[in-house]
Amino acid sequence: MHWTVAASFIHNPAIDGDWLLPYVPGDRHHFTIVPHSNPLTNWHNQSSSVTSYQRWLHYLDQGKEAVKQTQGGVITVFPQLASTVGMYQRIYRKQIPIVAWLFNVGKCYPGVRRHLARVSLKNVTQFVVHTRRECDIYSQWLGLPKERFQFIPYQSADIPVLFEENTTNPFLVSLGSAHRDFSTLFSVIEKLKLPTVVASGKRALAGLEIPPLVKTPFGIGKQECIRLAQEARINVVPLRADKLITAAGQVTIVESMRMGRAVIASHCNGAEDYIIHGKTGLLVKPGSVQELADAIELLWNDANFRNRLGQAAKSYAAEYFSDEASGAAMGKILNQAADLFEVTSTWELTH
Asked: pTM for this one?
């Protein structure tokens, strides 16, 4: 079956790659990538969490082309593209299967946003989410059957480990921006007096008093973040607990695990779907200065435990959070969507 693929991070396939498509097993499905008209900017450097008008225009163009070009179905990545494809499907009266991958809206807002989401996403065949809790959250928010939402772990390609832990000048690192609880982390740093690097965005740190032992390099690239994660003694992912937040931190957690690094994360927003407490990382109560401080002290002072967690995390992530694992899962979802589409098309032709 033919699928067009619309992902905002694919602007030039020759440079940006083919995402998970080479890992889909078998030869039942073939794909055409519809490139995004503009290179994806660093989300952490955005001044607002709301998608801009200009960005929506790019999503609309890409979604429109995906619907026009497909001879079968459409695969989207990110909710904005799922919405635009769903809208154009209705406009063109084109009955096609839509698989919405990496469907994470961040927060489920009520009112007009919810109404627009329900209208544009009504005919999406399958939503792929990256925490189990999102299946219930989005089912209720969109008023759709829970069966249309499937949890597949967020994946990452193998990340070569090129840097050793910095044992001369050890430090903690905290990467990422979405729904981070840096206020609690900074309280812990003030208490423990440990050197720390927070690689995030200015918006995530706005209004916070940054302790003297914390460095905040802004605007650094992906490779520099990887170097920091590998050289750090511990990777910390502090998250805010909020009923409106659907999921957060999975990208940072998975990448840290893929690199075999000991990671501590707040036990909220789906972190438990990735970290097995005490085996592949540590989970702490969100907002608890004492629990986070105790966890950091434990790993900081116990190299054997720290390394054991890191190696277990690396093995676990290679098995469950790899491109190969996600490609196999995608193949099953596409088979199901194709089977349903073929049955529906046959029924319409005979009735």
From this structure: 0.91
